[in-house]
Amino acid sequence: MGQEEEDETPAEPPSAATKKDREGEAWNLRKDRLILELADKLITGGDLSTKIQAARDIRRLVRKSSSTKTRSKFASAGVIQPLILMLLSPNLDAREASLLALLNLAVRNERNKVSIVTAGAIPPLVEILKFQTSSLRELATAAILTLSAAEPNKSIIAASGAPQFLVQILTLGSVQGKVDAVTALHNLSTCTVDNSSHVILDHKAVTPLISLLKECKKYSKFAEKATALLEILAKSEEGRAAITDSEGGILTIVETVEDGSLVSMEHAVGALLSLCQSNRDKYRGLILSEGAIPGLLRLTAEGTTKSQERARTLLDLLRDTPEEKRLASSVIEKMVYDIASQVDGSDKAAAETAKKLLQDMVQRSRNHVQRKAASCTCSNIKSP
Questions:
Q1: For residue 41, which of 54, 237, 278, 366 is within the disulfide window of CB 3.0 to 4.6 Å?
Q2: At residue 192, what are phi and psi to the nearest 5 degrees?
Q3: CA 175 to chain centre
Q4: Is 173 helix (H, G, I), strand (E, B) or coil?
Q5: CB-based contact 112:80 (threshold 8 Å)
Q6: To which H or E segment does residue 292 belong?
Q7: What is the dihedral of CA 242, 247, 251, 255, to 10 degrees?
Q8: Full-prediction pTM beyond 0.70?
Q9: Phi and psi (nearest 5°) for 199?
């Protein structure tokens, strides 16, 4: 008897449940009628103001229902093509209303993303990216970002000329516009045009990316995307030159090796490695002068497997050539690695001790680099 009492839970009155079901069914029927009515206004309505209002209502209804099914029903009703035609209108209100409607139809719906691009949305969006009107330009940036998340769309967007205008947004846009542009470029970064090896990134992106990386938290998701782009850019001669020409370019990447997330550190050390591998004589001194050694030593112990390999390879390139110096440095790296990897992770006190030893070793290495740099500078000054 007592057990039966424990299992009993208050049940919702049948009348209340039935009422909710009826209300849900009524709303779904009303929503389906609205979808058809709005589609009809867009497709057959001759009045531009009617179409603008219909586009606004589509956005409002999608936002209200927040349902993938609602987005799909609008697409099935044929609203995508007339919305794209509105993007070509000289009327700015029409462009804004259709942009917002398309953006909302594309969010969280991969099929709609592909359908919008297939229906020809990218050329008018690229034209809007050229606008001086910042609000429209940044809406177009957000739309490109959303559409570029679908794999089938990437080659079409990359070939459209959109990336060069996204690079301009990195300098001219608002904070949100810059974030959207970096994310869109990151989505497109592995895409090639016509199956060629031409990477869809312009070296002009380097300077604004370095500036943005300076300002953001090095362990943020944004920093991960920015350093991924810089790593790609570092593989071209123009990109490497732009990194060294940017104020604090190499220093900013070195700081990301020291302070970034595991992903950011991996991309940052990859960028430095590309520099040094392309021309050791040119880049070795530049990297050393920014104090890269401490962060690289830490990375050999604490980074991802790829980061550790890259850090060791870069340390080999940064060393002087005599074998005894190479051996001494290798011994230091092994000590660092052993301290970090052989301590039992369950022993928190021992782990903390290992971390402090590692940090002390890195700091000693940093001090040594700074003293060496100072002595080199003094020896290069000629007496009058």
A1: 54
A2: -125, 155
A3: 14
A4: coil
A5: yes
A6: helix 292-302
A7: -100
A8: yes
A9: -80, 140
